[in-house]
Request: fold
Amino acid sequence: MARKKIALIGGGQIGGVLAQLIALKQLGDVVLFDVVEGLPQGKSLDIVEASRVDGFDISLKGTNDYKDIEGADLVIVTAGLPRKPGMSRDDLLVTNAKIMNTVAENVKMYASNSIVIVVSNPLDAMVTLFKKVSGFPTNRVMGQAGVLDSSRFSTFIAWELGVSVKDVNAMVLGGHGDTMVPIVRYANVNGIPVMELLERKYNDKAKAQEVMAAMVKRTKMAGGEVVELLKTGSAFYSPASSSIAMAEAIIYDEKRILPTCAFLNGQFGVEGYYVGVPAVLGANGIERVVEFALDSEEKAALDNSVNAVKSLIADMERLGF
Ligand code: APR
Reply:
């Protein structure tokens, strides 16, 4: 079987870690594209020079020429500016929309059959714009947000309960902003509801709810927490790992159900917008969106999040994108 060709558009912090993870996992041959001359070439050379030590055998090419992504099977887009302290993801809108426009035009030109995972922020708007400019079918354009938000939520739950994070299942839906919706009701440790474990730990229902509320809040603010600490950029290890989980599901046709920023055609009562929902990822990209019943509180929270996405998209359209 021929190796997959994976194009990474954006060779910054996330792009570099993506390239290294793909190499270590031998997921495919990598083309790392960036507009900054020397950056993708330098990173590619640096990573590939560890191939003897790490024992991987793929090709890695750094480039400033879109032509090199020709025929890519999978494209992961991280081009764009990251947040600085005090900035919201939406502040990035204008700058990154201009960049995404160019990226989508070039991916359409050189890799018209590819499956695309967008990571650049503001995520929901950038995925929407990529889809609009490329004209790709919706199963081939998705965004990474929920895998990371869910991983953050799971991490906090594992710390709180003193259990391995490997046994924690928790999902975050909605837009990738402060209105995201951690689904508390279904959060579990090997099937045991997290709320029950918290109630047993504290022997107090109100205290358990308070502790969960704090974890939910931290999850929503987790990206900002990293930005405040780093001061010079935003999270990059965990977004890269999360994007790789989605890429693996696609490359190996795993049919994993991952929280994915997917285009909705009426599912969850949403028509015509990209929103974070559980989706089956396989060789055809988003193979289907998985619906489940939300209770009234979850539904209200998701509606609120969808409204935030709608107003972001309206802002983007007003700006001419
Ligand atoms: N085409 C391709 N790459 C571009 C373009 C462009 N038009 N404009 C800028 N870039 C590149 C930059 O040169 C930089 O190397 O995008 C890269 C972005 O890398 P970083 O600034 O290191 O940002 P990173 O942490 O990787 O985050 C990228 O993902 O999570 C989001 O909010 C984050 O929007 C940001 C994106």
